[in-house]
Amino acid sequence: MENLLEVKNLAVSFKTFFGEVEAVRNISFSVKDSQTVAIVGESGCGKSVTANSIMQLLPMPPAFFKGGEIWFEGENLLKKTDKEMQKIRGNKMSMIFQDPMTSLNPTIRVGKQIVEGLIHHHGISKQEAEEKALEMLRLVSVPQPEKRIKQYPHEFSGGMRQRVMIALAMVSDPKLIIADEPTTALDVTVQAQILELMREIQKERGMSIILITHDLGIVAEMSDKVVVMYAGQIIEEGNTKEIFENTKHPYTAKLLKSVPRLDMDKNEPLHSIEGTPPDLYIPPLGCPFYDRCDKAMKICKDNMPDEENHSPTHKSRCWLNHPLAKDQERRSS
Amino acid sequence: MKKYIFKRLGMSIVTIWAVVTITFFLMHSVPGDPFRKEGKMSPAVYENLLEKYGLDKSYPEQYMIYLTNLLKGDFGDSMKSKVETVNDMITRGFPVSAYLGVEALLIAIVFGPALGALAALYQNKVPDYIAMIVAIIGISVPSFIMGTMFIQFIAKNINWLPIGGWGEFKHTILPAIALSMMPLAYMARLMRSSMLEVLGQDYIKTAQSKGISKAAVVLKHAVRNAILPIVSVLGTLISNLLVGSFVIEKIFGIPGLGALFVQSITNRDYTLIMGTTIFYAIVLIGMLFLVDLAYMAIDPRIKLTGEGR
């Protein structure tokens, strides 16, 4: 399979009054055709910045690219002008946002919002546009599409609006969809419906999905590949099976442990990872997870571990991978 | 919708009645009357004058007479002008003031929001600073200073436009600009802040993610949502502009409605006070109604119904 998208050594920073925040630090990953890649991590770990960098929707300034390349269908997106990028955005790649309650323009009819991008990119007629809008609403299973396209977003429920957002993202038949926490704002049953819908559409149309989430339950259900980010870096990457069954990085392990389970004892407290991620004004020299890791060793403090391959698809960055790690003195926590 | 309009109409009539009543009794509670100050007047003449204008009757009686006349659309005779009725004075002054007001309004509505939107789009850059300097000048420099400066520099020194007077279009330019500065500046500031808020909304990002041009994002998605706060202040603004400004009309020698407001008070011209106040109330209520209709046209979430919320 060909790589549809390849991110190479991407580094994104934000200029602020207090100095530079290194939100994304040298990350590389790839997305193949029809693959679903999940990017997971806590709030502020750089997931959304990564997604917005690919779409080039970051406000610049304050954001700027410090380095790296983003290859999409054989072209480096970071070399493109605004105009060229507009032709790709909403055409070959599109995005689904977190909060469907605020992501639709309250003063424009839903049907028009869905096809707006299409009209812009392909200059189709009004009638074609309306038919297309109807087709899209049917695709995302919105009942009574003839009536619905003439309505405004406030007449839709949260789940229905997210369906509209999916329709909006799918309308130009993109190669890549970036879903930035698409179900976070929805309740659990609606969440399941939306995920099911996305899977069905993917099966039918075969686009690739980058799924950004902090919910590992969704990851297990949806994705082929998982990228775990922490403090702007990728600390573990692998097939979903590898990540769940052969967890290498202590951070990933803790993330997995903090997923609430139905079979948990009622009185058992929910697990959480103590502490907060490091301040990215002054990124730590060593492993950024050092302060919160209960397996941390002396070497972790000032030295960043190299990437270690566990299989052709599975790699992680942790000193525990090192052959000498077992002999090292463990820090008692 | 029909129900709403009828309800609104009924409410308006009640409001106007309240304005009439309150103004009437407030006005009469102030000591003195229209004729007391007029120097050497024999008591007999004074009594006669009171009788002629019905001021010798009790307040409730006068009030009832005034109300019945008002229902016929008659504001009564002016107590100072010997030749004109209040209706005459308003129909003479209003078109002048309204003409000037509409001109000022057009200037303000075209340039105010545009300036504000520009400032928001180029936040903390040169266009923003220029727009906000203009806005601060517009808000903080009083219209009588603006007016006199225009007369000094544009009318007198370089002789482009007439100093004052009324009759041709060229007479209206300077006063209209002077009159428009305050609302223009106010709208610019309002538009800037509301535009900044809208530009930070998620749906703007959605619009950008569709790959449409920057201009389309701003014009189709941002402006329509950002204009709402402007529309809501428009009602008061328009009615103020329409009924004229005493200061501007005085400076440029314009025979508008603005002067009548001040004259009526200083002269204790009871009927003129009532007439101008009620007229202003009617214009204001009408404008506020139009604003609510405009609101509904712009924002589909706002539905006007006869029922309470």
From TrEMBL, chain A:
Annotated spans, Disordered: 306-333
All residue ranges annotated as the ABC transporter domain in the record: 5-256
Keywords: ATP-binding, Cell membrane, Membrane, Nucleotide-binding, Transport
Domain of life: Bacteria
Cited Gene3D superfamilies: P-loop containing nucleotide triphosphate hydrolases (3.40.50.300)
Predominant location: membrane
Identification of the protein by name: Oligopeptide transport ATP-binding protein OppD
Membrane topology annotation: Peripheral membrane protein
Gene Ontology biological process: peptide transport
Family: Belongs to the ABC transporter superfamily.
Keyword NAD set for record: no
Transmembrane feature ranges: none
PANTHER family: DIPEPTIDE TRANSPORT ATP-BINDING PROTEIN DPPD, OLIGOPEPTIDE TRANSPORT ATP-BINDING PROTEIN APPD
SMART domains found in the cross-reference section: AAA
Phylogenetic placement of the source organism: Bacteria, Bacillati, Bacillota, Tissierellia, Tissierellales
Compositional bias annotation for Basic and acidic residues: 324-333
Compartments where found: Cell membrane
Gene Ontology CC, one term: plasma membrane
Molecular-function GO term, any one: ATP hydrolysis activity
One Pfam family named in its UniProt record: ABC_tran
InterPro entries: AAA+_ATPase, ABC_Ni/Peptide_Import, ABC_transporter-like_ATP-bd, ABC_transporter-like_CS, Oligopep_ABC_C, P-loop_NTPase
TrEMBL record, chain B:
Family per similarity comment: Belongs to the binding-protein-dependent transport system permease family.
Gene: dppB_2
Segments passing through the bilayer: 9-27, 98-122, 129-153, 173-191, 226-248, 278-298
UniProt cross-references to InterPro entries, sorted A to Z: BPD_transp_1_N, MetI-like, MetI-like_sf
Species the sequence originates in: Tissierella creatinophila DSM 6911
Residues annotated as domain ABC transmembrane type-1: 94-295
One Pfam match: BPD_transp_1_N
Subcellular location: Cell membrane
GO cellular component: plasma membrane
Lineage of the species this protein comes from: Bacteria, Bacillati, Bacillota, Tissierellia, Tissierellales
This protein's name: Dipeptide transport system permease protein DppB
UniProt keywords, alphabetically: Cell membrane, Membrane, Transmembrane, Transmembrane helix, Transport
Lineage: superkingdom: Bacteria
Bilayer topology annotation: Multi-pass membrane protein
PANTHER family referenced in this protein's UniProt entry, alphabetically: INNER MEMBRANE ABC TRANSPORTER, OLIGOPEPTIDE TRANSPORT SYSTEM PERMEASE PROTEIN OPPB
A Gene Ontology BP annotation from the UniProt entry: transmembrane transport
